[in-house]
Amino acid sequence: MTRPLWAPWRLEYIGSADEHEGCFFCEALEGPDEEGLVVARGASAFVLLNKFPYSSGHLLVAPRRHTGDFSGLDDTEAVAIHRLASHGINALTATYAPEGFNLGWNLGRVAGAGVLEHVHLHVVPRWGGDTNFMPVLADVKVLPEHLAETRRRLAEAWAG
Ligand SMILES: [Zn+2]
Predict the structure, then answer these.
(1) Cβ 118 vs Cβ 23: under 8 Å
(2) How remote is the CA of residue 68 from the centroid of ligand 1, in Å?
(3) Which one from 58, 87, 118, 120 is the annotated catalytic residue?
(4) Taking the CB of residue 25, how many other CB atoms lie within 10 A of it?
């Protein structure tokens, strides 16, 4: 029996992205870390917490440049994004000890992208059994830790 492809990031920004005028990523980049939930900043890419996470510590890694064109990322951006993703995995491992990770790109609305105009890589920490308590509906999720606290802990782990 085939199981359906599991894609938690399909839930991102649903319901709120359409009503939002600016770009979540560019706004996060311009403002203070605490406000935009930015965990780390690199020369050509940066990392922030997903405001609509699947699990605690759900990270988004995006180029600094505002672009929705995945294939248009240059080599520097492509490498920076993947290096930040692996650094994020290390910080998450040090902080929350997840048992696994899902990494993924959503390109196009039909693929679940909530923000089309600024590409980003999802890093989703996983724990055994986490799908058991995750409800199907995005709006009734219960997260064990506040986003601000998660951001602070990960930024600390990043520096360490
Ligand atoms: Zn942007």
Answers:
(1) yes
(2) 8
(3) 120
(4) 23
Give the residue ranges of the chain where pLDDT is below 50.
1-7, 9-16, 132-140, 142
- On whether the CB atoms of residues 73 and 85 are closer than 8 A, the answer is no
Per-residue pLDDT of 94-117, as tens digits, reads 999 999 999 999 898 887 787 889
Q: Following DSSP, what letter does each residue of 11-76 receive, concatenated? A: GTTTTTGGG--S-HHHHHHHS-HHHHTEEEE-SSEEEEE-SS-SSTT-EEEEESS----GGG--HH
* 26 backbone φψ class: left, alpha, beta (φ>0; ψ -120 to 50): alpha
Q: Which residue has the tokens 């219960």?
A: 142
In the sheet where 38-41 sits, what is the strand order? 38-41, 45-49, 59-63, 121-126, 100-105
pTM over 0.90, yes/no: no
Instruction: Give pLDDT, residue 10.
Output: 46
Residues with CB under 5 A from ligand 1 (ion): 23, 25-26, 66, 118
